[in-house]
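Data availability (excerpt). The following record was deposited with the supplementary files.
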Amino acid sequence: MARTAQDVLADAVRELAPDTGANRLVPLIADGSAPRSVIAAFALEQHHVIASDRTSYRHLAERSAGRPAVEAFFAPLARDETAALELLGPLAAACGLDERTVRAYEPTPGCQAYPAYTSWLALQAEPVDVVVALTVNFATWSGYCAVLGRALRAHYGFDDSACGFFDLFARPAPDAADAALAGVAAGLADGLLTEGLAHRYGRLLQSYETMFWNALAET
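Predicted structure:
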């Protein structure tokens, strides 16, 4: 029986889920034991991550021109990154960061490996394979953001405005799953999907995601 897009995505998400305990920081934030300075560092690093990822998603959308189902997966991601950048402002303010501090901040290599690799994918990888890899990682990232949104309210006194960044990613757009399925289905129909490469990309994104959090834990 031919594999469906649903098969491809479900298998990738299941097989590439991060190891339990690999992320050292999120559990500390979840129970309120992480210092507030770590939240500030997160906000500072994310200004660089989000700006870079937005460019990468725009490029992937451009490379997918002529394949509407694939382009329709990436174009909304770029728009979401614009919204995320705006929501970083209230988060940074809640951490006591002003615009001058944000602009002057020098990012940490371990935190910027993820967007650097996403940039590589935008330039080098077949976009349909990237749809699979990002879907895998977004499932992980969304879960982390849901945990942080609750923890920052419960343990750190952050209000809804300050937690808006996490709320955005904790509740993916209702049509995001359909867009991923449609993009992968188009890739299967066109013979452009290579599951082995998609899993490689997803595995590396997951590893760089973990690296981001663990690098923050050391700040």
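Summary of structural features: The mean pLDDT is 96.
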